[in-house]
Design brief:
With 123 residues, the chain is α+β, with helices and mostly antiparallel strands. It folds into 2 domains: 51 residues, no CATH class; 60 residues, no CATH class. It contains 3 helices and 5 strands. Strand 2 and strand 3 form a beta hairpin. The longest helix has 30 residues.
């Protein structure tokens, strides 16, 4: 968790936390999934908005934002291949989950009880 409950004490009363990572468990210790029907709740004077699948409320806008964020990576991989793109850019390397049919992301391997392989050994 990035934000612990004790961190809320450093925030102004009425401040708002929007936890966009709630679909993956959240980034704040006090976050819990909510819905559009009942989107907010308060903890220690801090408002929490933790609606799951937030992008679903604005699909066109969220698609444009996602495309803008991912297109440079896609272009790097398309122009150079996944291995060269990963060697050149550490952030691209962090996004490799599977290569040559093997799981190359440690947390995914752990989550599904699969064997992990570092992508660099597959070059």
């Amino acid at each position: 968790m990035l934000v612990k409950r004790e961190h809320l004490q450093t925030m102004k009363r009425g401040a708002v936390i929007v936890d966009v990572a709630i679909d993956q468990g959240g980034s704040t210790e006090t976050s819990r999934p909510t819905s559009h029907h009942d989107p907010i709740y308060e903890v220690d004077g801090i408002i929490h908005y933790c609606v799951t699948n937030m992008p679903g409320a604005m699909p066109m806008t969220s698609t444009i934002a996602l495309t803008n964020a991912t297109l440079p990576y896609i272009q790097q991989i398309a122009n150079n291949g996944w291995a060269q793109a990963a060697k050149r850019d550490p952030s691209t390397a962090k996004g490799i989950n599977i290569a040559r049919g093997l799981v190359t992301h440690r947390k995914i391997a752990q989550s599904f009880d699969l064997r992990y392989r570092d992508w660099r050994v597959l070059l």
